[in-house]
Amino acid sequence: MNWWHRAHNTPLAVVVLTATMLAVPLLGGSAVPIPSLLAGMSAGIPVALVLPAVPAALTLQALNRVPRVYDTTAVRPVTSYRAGMLATTALIAVAIGLAATYVADSSMALAAARNFVGYLGIGLIVQQLLGHLYGPLAVTLVPVLCALIGLAPGGRPYPWTWPLHQAPSAIAATASLLLITSGTAAASFFTPRGAARRASN
What is the SS3 assignment for 149? Predict the structure, then answer.
């Protein structure tokens, strides 16, 4: 297992995730100014809701460092390693989010943990369908697209714009859980489209 983690540089991904989650309570009310096309206003998206895209993209990049064909043909059960890494990073994010919410008396850290889990799930699904180059790209574009077209007049997020919802939102929690579950299953049990095409040639 140690060789797999070294090859995929998982320690760096975990360190960046931990540092990001610990930084969320320090950001306070900081926001990223992004114009909203539908709300008719310049929307300020909390940095804490956008920042988790960074460790999510880095986690995907860590998983993609080694060509998938080596994982699929390995003698050892690397499928369980991938699933274990994804589950571990999700649990770390949620644990730090819960602890920070309790200590700082703010639910923003929990919302950031939820977004990390959802972003990671989206990236896994996208790279499974389109190729490993598009997973991290999709993760970075999701919060921008949500800000551009995900706010209704008055600045209220639409139901499908789950990354912009408040931490107690059941819709956002359900969406992130479904995304990470689907993404982990796809990454663990199905061959990526690009890899399948190369194998057939």
Answer: helix
